Amino acid sequence: MRSMFPFLIVFGLAAVLPFTGSDYWTLIATRAAIYWVLVSGLNLAVGFGGQLAIGYVALLTLGAYTASVLVAGNLGPAWPAFPALGAAGVVGAVAGVIIGLPALRLRTFYFAMTTLGFATILTQVALAWQGVTGGGIGLPGPTLPAPFDTGPGFYFLCLAFAAFCTWITANVAHSRFGRALVAIRDAEVAAEAIGISKPALLVTVFLFSGATAAIAGGLFATLQSYITPDAFTFDLSVLFFIAILIGGRGSILGPLLGTIILTVLPEFAAPLVAWSTFLYAALLLIIVLVIPGGIADLLDFANRRPLERNRAIIPRPELLAEILDHGAARATIDLRGVVLSFGGVRAIDGLDLQIEPRQVHGLIGPNGSGKTTTLNVISGYYRPEHGTVGLGDVDLSHQPTQARAGLGIARTFQTPRLIGEASVLQNVMIGGSINGTASFAESLLTLPRHRRDERRLRAQATLALRVVGLESLAAVRADRLQHSELRFMEIARALMLHPTFILLDEPAAGLSTDEIKRLGELIKRISQRGTGVLLVEHHADLIFDICDTVTVLNLGRELAAGTPSDIRAHKEVVSAYLGA
Ligand code: ADP
Ligand code: MG
Fold it and tell me: Does pLDDT of 329 surpass 60?
């Protein structure tokens, strides 16, 4: 259960503030509430999605001008205030996507520059389009109808918006969309393999954060009562961005407190206002150095408790029947004449390989012989230059990585890909992202389909963790796990797809002898449930114990293939690879 308690305290205190009789602090709090409406949405893109959208003052500007211009009647007839605020939200949503689109192609810093560029362009437009925006002289902000036309009345309206934004963004954060965002941020390759579509997800989030930012802009214009282009300074952009960083990535409470702190701070240091950018930067530096995880990390008491030492991983393969119930065998994965080179190196050089359902297919060979590359070709990470990859009648060669998840092809990685700041349970739940049915909008409001999704994903992830023997660590942050535990966690995540095929890249690396035995038993039982397993491994014992078929690679080519006993008797293999 996530804790609502800190939010109740923050908003409870905020609600009694006007009754203390200080108009001045009510005004500051109004500003904080408006900023939070913007930051809450931006937090999904920056804190959860890891996108460096630093120019969000642009959307505040856009929302402020849209609402003000419509209410003033400078474009057609004058609008009432609330519909104008709604229109600002719509315009902001569209602009949010336009600003966000470069994020799908550009790497972090270039994207940051484009968001800043947009802010500059908007200010120039506001200055130049005098007939509508009043140019440098500006125009009045919207006046709201009673009871929102007084200081406290407007404050409670902004507070209601802020509380609502907190609620809906927390809902998203605790949905498959929130987890997918964090996966894109911390483990993009794993996210792709799970079937998460980065473009669709980011566009949705930019749409949402654009709308909230522009609505905040409309409220900001009312607060200012008169807006000019210089009301929207670069400092504001910095404030929004830094509030999230000092709050902590992937948290709602942290950035909320960060926003409050950064809004209030200049009031205590009035003589330093001119230095506020410098103050923010210094504060950020201190936080990064002292508490890199931000405020959220400071408040994360549960993860300070020491973990039990000498914990053993005891998988329970007998529970696999509840996850893998395919019944009859399905199609075969079929590689024909696959060639792939990196520069001059032929990593795979004309490989034929068939992986059957219900079988464990071992892939062995010296380092650099092309095992991981073969796995990457099957999982769609690389496209073969020549040859085909098929699943039954389906040609996979030109399908995107994400399509594999839909076909039930799951994988693990040679280096475990984890979301360190998320719990083990969440890391596993991510594996079932594509099985969710609720839309983003349904998740925003926790409608019934969203709640059903969450219940089911949670139940399945718990079951998958019991299968691999990690259920006692479900609530622990993933970056606190030992290496061997992470390997089992990745298998649990792969099981979330109910895979028809599972591709394992050196799952036994770093495991103890006992753990390797239990892993072998688990893999064997997975294949007996009907799932085809491709096992890339160095541990010869494991390979010969559990494989039905073994392929030996050398320099990207098949050196030998057959049953374990064939391979053990193969002279070239023994001399070149197995030694002895
Ligand atoms: P294995 O998993 O069998 O140890 P790999 O499939 O990782 O081997 O690598 C096969 C060959 O391809 C090696 O020579 C490796 O250096 C090269 N290789 C793999 N990935 C890349 C890459 N992304 N860029 C350049 N060369 C690569
Ligand atoms: Mg490898």
Answer: no
User: Hey, is 334 helix, strand or coil?
Assistant: strand
Q: Closest residue (by CA) to atom 17 of ligand 1?
A: 347
CA 283 → CA 57, 287, 509, distances in Å?
20, 6, 42
Architecture per CATH, domain 317-578, reads as 3-Layer(aba) Sandwich (3.40)
The residue whose two tokens read 């701070």 is: 265
5 lines ligand 1 (CB under 6 A): no
List the one residue out of 150, 172, 148, 170 whose CA is nearest residue 160: 148
CB of 376 closer than 6 A to ligand 1? no
Tokens matching residue 407: 């076909």
Kindly report the protein residue whose alpha carbon is nearest to atom 14 of ligand 1: 368
Contact residues for 575 (Cβ-Cβ < 8 A; gap 6+): none
CB 158 within 8 A of CB 34: yes
pLDDT in tens, 196-220: 999 999 999 999 999 999 999 999 9
Nearest ligand (C-alpha, residue 378): 1
CB-neighbour burial class of residue 128 (10 A; exposed 0-12, middle 13-18, buried 19+) = exposed
pLDDT surpasses 60 at 439: yes
| Alpha carbon nearest to ligand 1 atom 16, residue | 368
Cα–Cα distance for residue pair 383/388, rounded to 1 Å:
9
* Residue 218 near residue 260, CB atoms below 8 Å: no
Segment of 11-20, 81-90, 138-147, 316-325 carrying the highest mean pLDDT: 81-90
pTM: 0.91
Crossing angle of the two packed helices 108-128 and 81-100, in degrees rounded to 10:
140
Q: Counting Cβ atoms within 10 Å, is residue 519 exposed (0-12), middle (13-18) or buried (19+)?
A: buried
pLDDT digits (tens, 9 = 90+) for 341-382: 998 889 999 999 999 999 999 999 988 999 999 999 999 999
CB of residue 169 inside a 6 A radius of ligand 1: no
